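<tokenise_the_fold>
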Amino acid sequence: MDADARARRELEMELRQTIAAGSGLEVYYQPCVDLRSNEITGCEALVRWRHPVRGMISPAEFVPIAEETGLINQLGEWVLMTACKEAVNWPDQIRLAVNVSPIQFRSGTLALKVIAALAASGLSAGRLELEITEAVLIRDDETALAAMHQLRAIGIRIALDDFGTGYSSLSYLKRFP
């Protein structure tokens, strides 16, 4: 096993331990601003990993590992639960946006996990927005469509993140709720 593969495997094991322990991960919030009024309308939850030895590890380094190993489901669930519990204390007009990976979206349990996070936190469904990428729509659109309908039925907003970086068009997107 070469050095890069060993380092990646070690990082994966440390990420597993971090998620299981529930410590070392942090949620940072990036404000969403209405450009007309210059008011904050919401915040996007962004996960960060404070490694005990390496310091802050970029999501660009650990999120792909989480996606490749299936850890993204547990990581995403932790971010969703943590962010909902913190956002419930914000002013009522401030929305919470949480990124959802294509793997989470296709898991078949996303709606149940969202409902559980809302119930545990007391956050109203209307204040939660899930951000998905074009990859969710392109890869398996029937599964994505069913999941989107489930989420919309409970009042969750769906937003398309990074539109234009993939292959979808506006006419294609009209099919989705």
Summary: Helices lie at 3-21, 59-69, 72-87, 102-105, 110-121, 134-139, 141-153, 170-173. The mean pLDDT is 88.
